[in-house]
Amino acid sequence: METKGDRKDFPVLPDPAILQAARQIYRTYHQTHPKLVQRPTGVALNRVTLRGKLIFSGQPILLPQEIFVPFSQIESELY
Fold it and tell me: Which of 21, 41, 60, 75 is the most buried (most CB within 10 A)?
């Protein structure tokens, strides 16, 4: 039996509030450090508090209440 997260060919899109929070975290970083060119791999975000941090290395180890939003989803509406 397949569960929602088992399908690798269809990315699971996060809740719009989570996506908005991840974009805001990235915007704040980009505005604060405009000369830094290193792109993050994504944002690790707490689903309850919507607080998060940018991730610059490979896939992070997340706490149970956290979600990882890849940069490809964040940038899809930034530009």
Answer: 21
Cα–chain center distance at 79: 16
Q: Does 25 fall in a domain?
A: no
How do residues 65-76 score in pLDDT, each as one tens digit? 999 999 998 887
User: Can you give the pLDDT at residue 6?
Assistant: 47
Domain that holds residue 69: 39-79
The reported pTM is 0.76
Q: Let me know if residue 24 belongs to a domain.
A: no
Residue 52 lies in a domain: yes
Question: CB-based burial of residue 16 (10 Å sphere; 0-12 exposed, 13-18 middle, 19+ buried)?
Answer: exposed
Is residue 69 in a domain?
A: yes
Number of domains in the chain: 1
Strands in 52-55's sheet, in edge-to-edge order, are 52-55, 42-46, 66-70
